[in-house]
Amino acid sequence: MPAVNNVLVVGAGLAGTAAAIHLARGGVAVDLVEVKPEVTALGSGITLQGNALRELDRLGVWEAARERGFPFDVTGIRAPDPQGRVLFEVPDARTGGPDYPAVMGMSRPELARILHDRATLVGVKTRFGATFTELRQDDAGVDVAFADGSTGRYDLVIGADGIRSQTRQLIGADLETKRVGMGIWRAFGPRPAGVTRTDLYYGGPSYIAGYCPTGEDSLYAYIVEPAQDRSALTPQQRLDTMIELSRAYHGPWDDIRASLTDSSRVNYTWFETHLLDPPWHRGRVVLIGDAAHTCPPTIAQGGAQALEDAAVLADLLLTLDVLGPRLWAAFHARRYDRVRAVVNASNQIARWLLDHEQGDLPSLMRDIAVLVSQPA
Fold first, then answer.
1. Domains in the chain, start-ordered, CATH in brackets?
2. pLDDT digit string (tens) for 151-163?
């Protein structure tokens, strides 16, 4: 018998929707609320490592995701010179095992839609444009008041509502989100025929310039610069700024730059980081995903770790019959050290770039690959 019969999940991103799917498949009644008015996702594309693909398979969406994504097994390192020369190629570790590609690029909104459709199919009741205003818990459950005046009572509330988590604030889990010192330009556009993997350019006027194919006809391109206040720029100025920064990078970037014509497909955000010390729960309310941990995407593990949070929490809720100290101890034992290693490694790479320091990147990446190759 599961430890819970009904659950409220707050936030319909990767972590929240994945948790809802796992629990609903296990017979738990799940309400999923999302403050945004529709299925959406911030940004343009996402790079999914093998361990993330393994989790998509556990959710029952791997085949649908593979049809819409773009898998590859090698990452190229190019020079910021007039030719965009390939300096070397790095075989990517198959952290999900031999049944999955090492990496897959995908449109974030497309992945969000696939997960939402799966959630609906397995019985998750989703409410968009909805949020809560109050949580009151006792030993037996959590009473929730929603913004539309409705109420509900749940055995557990899962806060998967992102970096600025309202759930985290309401339960008093103190956490300082720090700026890393980098900002990233992202653009979504057509895929030139020659782009069949991620290539990274280190150096030049920016820290990193790169791209990732996200489908047969699409890619997302990105440039990482020192963090700046870009909020006053108009959409056209944002597009012009990204184009200008990209002029230092060549090879496939020349074709990508020529295709950057739609200002609505360009966005700019700062890298931020935080990691909540355990416990991630307060009574019958628990935080997962970006609500508990976030880091710069320097090793592309953010999505994977969110999916793993959801899988581990759901596994314990479905296999243990009491929501109590034993369950929470097992959850933190399986998640905290693993997440901390990923967050620390991601931040270490960012520090090396900020300090223009030649760190031991191969060893660090190898250690993380070995870690995440083991199922969470």
1. 6-66+108-177+272-373 (3.50.50.60)
2. 999 999 999 999 9
Q: Which residues pair with 199 in a beta bridge?
A: 76, 211
Q: Strands 281-282 and 285-287: what pairing?
A: antiparallel
* In the block, residue with structure tokens 């030719």: 83
Is the backbone of residue 94 left (phi > 0), alpha (psi -120 to 50) or beta?
A: beta
The total number of residues shown for the chain amounts to 376
In this structure, what token pair is assigned to residue 93? 């570790």
Which tokens belong to 142? 């959590």
Burial (CB count within 10 angstroms: exposed 0-12, middle 13-18, buried 19+), residue 34: buried
Name the amino acid, one letter, at 163: I
Separation of alpha carbons 221 and 274, rounded Å: 25
- H helix or E strand, kind and range, residue 340: helix 325-354
Q: Percentages helix, strand, coil for the chain, rounded to the nearest 5?
A: 35, 30, 35
Q: Give the global pTM.
A: 0.96
